[in-house]
Amino acid sequence: MIIPFKISQLEVRHTKVKYIIIHHTACQYTNPDTKVDNMKFQMTGISSGVLEKKEPDINYHYIIDKIKEDFHVISCRPFVTLCDFPDINQDMNRKSIHVAMMGSYDFKIPHKRLIEVLAYRLLNPFLKIYSINPERILFHSDVSNNKDETCPGLFADKTIITSMTRRFLLK
Ligand SMILES: [Zn+2]
């Protein structure tokens, strides 16, 4: 599955990043391969979802996928462009980077190593480079105007994510 990049359909970011919004991939893509994270490289499931929805690119800037023994960050939509979430206030969306954990966390707790990789490789560098504090790390469910939205999952715990982020905070 090859995504034909449609750069003309992407909106360029003109505003400084102020928020990082956390998702699980089950919020956008229904392919069974994107609902449970396993040891396989699951980006083909995401790509087929993008093609089915006729999106110009993956609707997250980054996805963290477990591949074999460890979790890896996959760069998706370039972060100088915006993602497309009709349920998120557009002013907030213009200032946000969207990061997704592969799978669904409505039924299971995210692995500790997943949270470490998220904090160390993504959240921390973004907090540092954009001078934002950990309170600006938000869940999709915090900012959605759909009150039934559970993304990034009922078992995702923001306190754990922000405390892990503080642990790795670059001075
Ligand atoms: Zn989401």
Overview features:
Lysozyme-like, alpha/beta, binds zinc ion, five-stranded mixed sheet, 171 residues, 5 helices
What oligomerization state is this entry in?
A: single chain
Distinct helical segment count: 5
**What is the arithmetic mean of pLDDT?**
95
The total count of strands amounts to: 5
Q: Looking at this structure, what is the CATH superfamily? A: Peptidoglycan recognition protein-like
Structural domain count: 1
CATH structural architecture: 3-Layer(aba) Sandwich
Low-confidence stretches: none
**What's the SSE pattern?**
EHEEHEHEHH
- Name the hetero compounds present: zinc ion
| Shape descriptor | globular
Structural class: alpha/beta
Main sheet strand line-up: 3-2-4-1-5
Sheet having the most strands: 5 strands, mixed
What proportion strand? 15-25%
CATH C-level class is Alpha Beta
Can you tell me about this structure?
Strand 2 (62-67) and strand 3 form a beta hairpin. This protein starts with 18 loop residues before the first strand and ends with a helix. The chain has helices at residues 43-52, 90-94, 112-130, 140-143, 158-167; strands at 19-24, 62-67, 70-75, 96-101, 137-139. Helix 3 crosses helix 5. It has five helices and five strands; from the N terminus they run E-H-E-E-H-E-H-E-H-H. The chain has a single domain (21-167), classed as Lysozyme-like (3-Layer(aba) Sandwich), CATH 3.40.80. The longest helix has 19 residues, at 112-130. By secondary structure, it is of the alpha/beta class. The chain is globular and about 40 Å long. It has a five-stranded mixed beta sheet. Bound molecules: zinc ion. Residues 23, 27, 140, 151 line the site of zinc ion. Zinc ion is lined by residues 23, 27, 140, 151.
